[in-house]
Amino acid sequence: MNALKRIGYLLGLPAILVVVWHLLTVNSDSFFVVDPVTLAQTFVDTWVGERFWNDVAPSLVRLAVGLVLAISLGIGLGLLIGSVRWLRGLTEPVLEFLRAIPPPVLVPILMVLVGINNQMKVLVIVSGAIWPVLLNTVEGVRSVDEVLIDTGRVYRITGWLRVTRLVLPAAAPQMMAGIRQALSIGLILMVISEMFASSSGLGFTIVQFQRSFAVPEMWSGVVVLGLIGLALAFIFQFVERRVLRWYHGLREVDHAG
C-alpha cells in the first residue's frame, strides 16, 4: 500500500500536467507548440539509437568527470580552509570575488587558454560547480562543535583520524547541501559549454535543431535534459540517505520527541 502511495505521489502530478498539456494543444495550429503525443514519438525517433551514443553519452561523460572533480576539489580545499583559521581569513575575500564571476563568461577565456576540446567543457563545469561544495564545506568544518573537538583532543584523536571520525561526519549535512546545488549548476554549464563551441553533445544538438526549425526535436532535447536532472536527483537522494543515515535518524527522533 505504501509503495502504491509513493508511486501515486511520484506520477500523479506529471500525469495531470500531461493531460492538461494535451487538452491545451489538441486544436493548436502553432508551429512552436508541440502536443505530448508528437513529442513522445519524436523523442523515441530522435534519441533512441545512434544519436544517444553520439550526443547524449559524451555529454554525460563530461558532466560526470566535471562533477567528480568539482566535488573532490571542493571537499579537499574546504577541509583545508575550514580547519585553518588564518587561511580562512586570508582566502575568504578571494573566494567571494571568484564566486561572484558567472561561469559562462569564462567560456571564451577557457577557449583561448585550453582550446576547443573536452577539457575546456569539463573546466567550465568545474568552474561553476565547485563553489557551493567548497563554501558549504568550509562553513560545515568551521561550525563543528567545539565540545566535540575538545573531547576528541582529550581522547588523543588527531590527524587523519580526527578528520574522518569527527570533522567529516559533523560537516557532512552542509557538504551534501552544497553537492545538491552543484549537480544542477553542473548540468546547466554542461549545456552552455556545448552551445558555445562543440560539434557534439546535447547543447550543440539542441541549438542545431533550433536553427533548423526542427521544433519537436528541439523540445525532445529539452526533455532529455529534464530526465538527466531527474536521474541526478534520484541518485543524490539514494546516496544522501546512506551517507547521512545517522543525521536523518537523529532528526526523526527529535521530531518524535
Textual characterization of the structure:
The chain has helices at 2-25, 36-47, 50-83, 85-99, 106-114, 118-142, 146-154, 159-196, 202-211, 215-243, 245-256. The chain starts with a helix and ends with a helix. The chain is flat. Helices cover 84% and strands 0% of the residues. With 257 residues, it is an all-alpha fold. The mean pLDDT is 88.
Distance between the termini: 27 Å
For the biggest sheet, the summary is:
none
The SSE string, one letter per element, is HHHHHHHHHHH
Low-confidence segments, ≥5 residues, pLDDT <50?
none
Q: What general outline do the C-alpha atoms trace?
A: flat
Q: How does the helix and strand content classify structurally?
A: mainly alpha
In helices, the fraction of residues equals: over 70%
* Total of helices: 11
Question: Which keywords apply here?
Answer:
257 residues, single chain, mainly alpha
Protein topology:
Layout: H1 2-25, H2 36-47, H3 50-83, H4 85-99, H5 106-114, H6 118-142, H7 146-154, H8 159-196, H9 202-211, H10 215-243, H11 245-256
Helix pairs in contact: 2-10, 3-4, 3-6, 3-8, 5-6, 6-8, 8-9, 8-10, 9-10
Put the structure in a nutshell:
With 257 residues, this protein is mainly α.
